[in-house]
Every structure is written in C-alpha cells, then in structure tokens.
Amino acid sequence: MAEKEALNVVVLAGGISHERDVSLRTGRRVADGLNALGHAVTVRDPDASLLAFLEESAPDVVWPALHGASGEDGALRGLLEITGVPFVGSRADASRLAWSKPTAKTIVSRAGVATPDSVTLPQETFRELGASSVLATVLDGLGLPLVVKPAQGGSAQGVTIVTTADELPRAMVDAYTYGDVALIERKVDGVEVSVAVVDVGDGPQALPAVEIEPVDGVYSFDARYNAGETRFYVPARLDELVSTAVEDAARTAHEALGLRHLSRIDLIVDDAGTPWFLEANVLPGLTETSIMPQAITASGREPADVYAALAVAAIADA
C-alpha cells in the first residue's frame, strides 16, 4: 500500500492505567497528525465494546497509544493479533519481555549491552525475609546511590533515587505502590539519554539521541510531561564515537527484545563513554513534551509523516 493512500485508522487512547492522561495526550497528537495528512481517524478508549467495534468497522490499521499496562504489557496486543487487524508497534511476546524491566535487562545484557547491577524483589520476598535484613543486604551488596523503581510501568512513576540508607525503606514503599515487584538498581552517574528507534520497513534506525537534563536533577513524572521542567538537547552533547556507541546500544536492545516499528531505549552514558541500558519502551510518549517527536524532527522528518509511515508498515507486516 502506498504511504499517501488515505487510511481508516483507529487510535486507541486512554485506558485505566496510572498513565491514562498521558495516553490521551499521545493519542490526540497521533490522531491530529494523521488527520492533517488526510487519513480518517477514530479515537477510541478501550472498553467492553472495543473488540466488537473493531470487527464491525474493520479499520485498515489500529494505532495503539495506550501507556501503562493496558497498552504495553502485551495483553491487548495479543487480542489484536487474534483478530487479525494490523496494528502499529511490537507484538505481544516482545511487549511482555520489554514490560518487565528485570527481564529486559537480562536479555539486553546477554546481547552485549551493559546494564547496572540490580536485584529484583517481589513484595512477598521482602516481607518473608524481613525488611531490615533485606535492605541491609542490598546496601552491602550494591552500595549507594541506588535507584528503586517498580519492575513494570513507565513515566517514572514510583521511581526514587536513594542517596542515604534512611531513604531506602520509603523508596520501597513507593515502588510497591505501583506493583508487587520492585527493582533496585545501582545508580550509574553520567548523561541521561533516550534513543528512539523506528522501523518503517527498512530495518530499525536509531534517531538522534536526546539528552535529558531535568531542572531539579530528577527526570520525574512532572519533569517528563510539564513544559519547562526539563532541558532537552537534540542531538545529545556527546562526541561522535560515543554517539555511535549509544545508537548501536539502542538498536541492539530493540532487536534483542524483538521489538517492532518503534521503541524508545533509555540509557545512561558514564564518564568513560559507556552506554548503560536502563529500560525499553514499546510505546514512547508522543506528547508535546515527549522525546520521540523531538528526535524525529532532529532526523529531518515530520512526526506526522513518521506516524503515517508506521501505519503503512504495520499493514505490510500483518
């Protein structure tokens, strides 16, 4: 199908996760971009009538813009695969791998990309072995500073940077608020970057890395989605050799996890120029303050054109 042919697209946005508002903003940006190119777009919140609606309306392609578990854990994508409707983004199996940060770290590490030392603690283990002894062991083994985060999820919700032992218990409580499993990771000091990877049918291409510099030092939920809370540098202020290493690491992570069409790979670049893999996102945010649209623009393309090309690629891959 030619990219300029008008498509009937269903954009899925909203959902019931903690990231509902962000999803609605992402969905609106995708819909507005596709509409501007002449495509017919329907924005749908997933609900009990969704599957019947898709069967009846038979869209050319579905564009999932659902952040959080409802769109990124693979469940909905598995159902879309069963229906046979083409959809943008990674398939269910790859989404499940990327959704679990500990699993993604293991896979990407085996592919040769560095990732910080860490321990994964289900809440049951934390309680069974006793909080004080577990945290003491963690501090002895990993040291400080640490990053504590839910093992699943995005948008930095439930993430805490721990610089003193006294901060660790509260950080665990915050992480368990968003899930039953917490990931405790040694904090790597360096330049925080995100690399958007796009594949519209000619293989995964790493877009220019975006350097992230939060005004208050922490790339929190508010810093991600409120204008003025973060300074972005596109491309990242890295020398050529380091930039190449960062792009290679992002492509390697994307391919090792079996991701499709688009992803965002988050990394830290240390003082030696080594990129450290943190996590992979199967649905990067596409809001007005998100990283991927900035990277697309820096690559010389318009975001709407890329969103349309991804829709066409999804149809070709169905």
From TrEMBL:
Subcellular location: Cytoplasm
Reaction catalyzed: 2 D-alanine + ATP = D-alanyl-D-alanine + ADP + phosphate + H(+)
Sites where the protein binds Mg(2+) 1: D266, E279
Residues engaged in binding Mg(2+) 2: E279, N281
Keyword Cell wall biogenesis/degradation recorded: yes
Gene Ontology molecular function: any one: ATP binding
Pathway: Cell wall biogenesis; peptidoglycan biosynthesis
Keywords in alphabetical order: ATP-binding, Cell shape, Cell wall biogenesis/degradation, Cytoplasm, Ligase, Magnesium, Manganese, Metal-binding, Nucleotide-binding, Peptidoglycan synthesis
Main subcellular location: cytoplasm
E.C. designation(s): 6.3.2.4
GO terms for biological process, alphabetical: cell wall organization; peptidoglycan biosynthetic process; regulation of cell shape
Function: Cell wall formation.
Protein name as catalogued: D-alanine--D-alanine ligase
Organism expressing this protein natively: Leifsonia soli
